[in-house]
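Exercise: predict the fold of this chain.
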Amino acid sequence: MVVVDIRKMCKTYLMGAIELRALREVDLEIEQGEYLAVMGPSGSGKSTLLNVLGCLDRPTGGKYFLGGKDVSSLDDDELSLIRGKRIGFIFQSYNLIGQLNVIENIELPMYYQRFSEHDSAARAKKLAEMVGLADRLKHRPFELSGGQQQRVAIARSLANDPVIILADEPTGNLDSQSGSEILGILDDLHRQGKTLIVVTHDDHIAGQAQRTIHLLDGRIDREQRNH
């Protein structure tokens, strides 16, 4: 089943009198349970593609179907609902709330989706244990290593059982050992049937994915099957 279906997607930004064409008629299908890597030089359109896939931005032209629903023309409130219910985000800088502990950071998306306090706490605990943080539940971000903070971010991305998980350079701020551990967790999620889309500059990380697309000047320049 296709969960992401992009057709002739364009994204243009107006910089004063200058038109910047960040995406140019991109066609892309991603199957449920697929692990996709997105690569390309700076300015190739990776961040723009991720923003549109994550419903953080709208395309200027073309269509975007997420789980069969056309989300390309939704207003801001509708996009916010889609983000909260159907998309999980993992950022290079973790984006955790410093005043909240591990459990509370993981619970945050469930709070906005009106989960009961009991259900959200139980699910957050289960997710923390799944990413190896059973002994860190009450710790705040400043008490955790970078690798542990990224584990919290991964658990948080799973809170609402999203249709897709978007990861932007998920090991970019980590040492090699912590980075390998995070890649192992992503592999586990893929084996569990999650749909992963990872933006990376690292060939090794891209090699973990089933398929890699290479962007150049806002277009898919080439793609390859890794395994």
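Check your answer against the key: The chain has a mean pLDDT of 93.
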